[in-house]
Amino acid sequence: MQKSLTDFEQLHPRSFKGTQAEAQQTQDAMAKAAESLQKKGNDARTSTQAATQQMEKLSEAMKNDTTGQQLADAYKMKQMLDNQIKTLGQCANPGPGGGVSDAEVDRTAGEARETLNQLKKVAEQEPTRDAFGPPLRAALSGTNKTELDSKLARVQLAQDQPARQQRAGEAKEALSKVSKAFEDSEPKAMQMAQKTDSLKQGEQESFNQGISELESLLKQLEDNRQMSPGKQGKQGREALGNLKNGMRALYGDTERGTQLLLKLDQMLNDEKALDANDLKSLISELQHFSVETADLMSRREDKPEVTNIDPTRLPPAYRGRITKYFQRLSEK
Q: At which of 186, 204, 226 does a domain end?
């Protein structure tokens, strides 16, 4: 079984992306169980049970990682839909500089139809179905989906500019309702996160605050302090809101960033109590994401001021190390 798992991981590395730690722990547990069985040790039964439990944890981790990937793809499609709405709007109401070309409008209408097909799968098929509420399913079901496809087809069939503009406007309005349905169907914690922008904190301050709130929650879990589910959930949602505001303002809607936010959202919505090890691992992933993304963005910028980056824009735990890194760059 251990060899089969190793071979499978080598053949399908993508399936284990994000679960390497669990995979390694499973390999170690299986190796220990195999050794105990070969030596007929007294701990053979215990080791075998531990290996079985570790395999179950790996299976669950891979399932959660797959769900997170699909949810991240859903948010990417939502962004694509909003861009398509914008293009159709430019066709319907061209500005002083003119509208978009007929070819671009036709292409956008075709791409929007495919985006709707993918969002329909998100709304109706497992595992993402359970993550989203009824509004998105209703917006893309039955006659509603047929009507959307018809409006997009009519844009492509328009024979003159006035008809094209009118039909593009109609399609834009119809797609806007789908976009709104997506937002209304989002996981509750993600909806609440969008409402926490009232204080208008600085982007890095917001990210740092979110990390601090998670670290505080982790410390309480490690100290075995009694926390009511309501208090635990409230603190977690506040952290999620701050992280979402900070990460998207600093780094945009990256796939990895969205996955991490959704992973926290799933942890908060899980019926089981928060696990200290899982939360600790997520905090580490968030901090590494921030450092690596800041580094990547700085290398894309070919500007002198990059070497004078403000250290307050980095997570507290990494400021010293990253500041020294940029200082060395400036000396080259």
A: 186
